[in-house]
Amino acid sequence: MTKPAKATLDKANVTPKPVVNLTDEQELVHEAQAASRMAAALGDGGGLPPLQRAIDAVTAVPDAGQRRQRFSLVQRLYGNSYADDVARQVDGEVVQRHPPGAPLLGGTVVAGGGADPEAGEQPMPEPAGSDAIAEGGGGTGGGGTSGGGGAAAPAGGTTPAAAPGTTTGGTTPAAPRELSMPTLQTTFARNAIQNTFGRAAGGRNFVTGNITIVADNTALCAQYDRIQIRNGVTNRDTGVAWVAGDKARWNQRRGFRTNAFAYEGNIWIDATQTDPTATVHEMLHVNTASSFLSTVGRVINEGTTQRFALRVIRNSGHSVAGSERTYVQEQGIVNQLVAIISEGVLENAYFNNPQALVDTYESLLGASSFAVLKRTLNDTAAGYTAAGRILRPPSAQTRIALINTLLDWWVSDTDIDHVERIYVSANTSDRAAIRTAIEPRLTSLTSLGQRFRLMAVFSHH
Fold first, then answer.
1. 3-state class of 241 per DSSP?
2. What is the mean pLDDT of the chain?
3. Which among 41, 282, 314, 450 counts the fewest CB atoms within 10 Å?
């Protein structure tokens, strides 16, 4: 495919022109038309266009605001991973990262984040005269399924909600609220995450996110509803399109309270909530590897995020009191998963390479075993119970038997990959047992490269 001349891209009307007082429907049409023009200008032919062509389209206009709008269209059309690659090669910080001291509520577009809102939820206090719902649910996308052709939620200041700290639907704006707990402050969350995870959490590319503090839980759920409606989501409970009030009803049925949620790098926080992990949890969401959610599913995504949020808060010397009811079942599943794959593999998968988690799991439990686990975690009580039975960590002797099988007869480099995953994912005592059993066999490997590779793995872990 011949790359179009840059002049063609310069003249292409791919940026939405400023329009005020649009209805939601007009806004959706406006954005869809802009996205269509962008796709036509890039000539993607139904696939991903050459990276340089997208870079040229983003940088063809001098105005920073227009660049961010074009970048937003690229992100919407081709996904976060492709957009991340574009962002890394564009000069002038198309992707704004909230420099120290910058206002929290400026309109920014960031790469990363999921395709659906990711909500930090707790079971609500038990209502008088009713049974508390123990089942985990809600969470990413509010349990809905994406509708075809839905527009992406607006980033930063383009949100259709009236203003930070307001409710929707024409109600009187409430004054923006401040977050009084120190662990909920943006600067604390950013520094604490980076102090805990270092460069693994993005290093210089760390995303603070565009944070909006809303007045109360009603306002938070209303904003969540607007994003779901905008994206054409179908409510799994009702089987029809998401409507205003669905988030509150979804939470009530499950005994949940949504404290905060993240969407496409934007974070909304309920000023009245008291979970000290809320801001850290959502900031972790916008810094996770872009394909982590789609690779592992909602339960492992939320359980891992809350596990890491608790680690960050504790590592900073603060109490986690108030978070005891947040993603309890999801964390339980992740605890069992870590016993199989190790904390290190989980951390690397979360921030960098989600497929490494799947590969390690399947090296131990067989091809397609992770797909079975992911399918089992279907947000039902029966699903959690079944997954708990599946997630049994193999003993040291099981790991040794697997490695011996892999080293028998002709050994491929793929076999060595499996051996490394089986060994590295073991705990310290199991690794010692594996070394004792397997090291004498290394001299029988005919490939010096394979022999030295395993010797290095055994000596470094």
1. strand
2. 74
3. 314
Q: Mean pLDDT highest for which of 7-16, 28-37, 56-65, 138-147?
A: 56-65
pTM over cut 0.85: no
Report the amino acid identity of residue 142.
G
Q: How many angstroms from the chain centroid is the CA of residue 266?
A: 12
> Percent of the chain scored above 90 by pLDDT?
49
Q: Which residue has the tokens 């809600």?
A: 138
Q: Are strands 210-214 and 266-270 parallel, antiparallel or unpaired?
A: parallel
Q: Which residues pair with 260 in a beta bridge?
A: 120, 269
CB 350 within 8 A of CB 292: yes
CA dist 102 and 361 (Å) reads 42
Say if residues 34 and 15 touch (Cβ distance below 8 Å): yes
Residues 407 and 151: their CA atoms lie apart, in Å, by 51
| For range 421-444, the mean pLDDT | 96
Q: What is the pLDDT of residues 114-147, one digit of tens each?
A: 335 666 655 433 222 222 212 222 333 333 322 2
Distances (CA, A) of 76 to 1, 84, 125, 323: 23, 12, 38, 33
By C-alpha distance, which of 259, 354, 258, 261 is closest to 300? 354
Q: How far is CA 270 from CA 98, 259, 264, 332, 343, in A?
A: 21, 6, 18, 26, 31
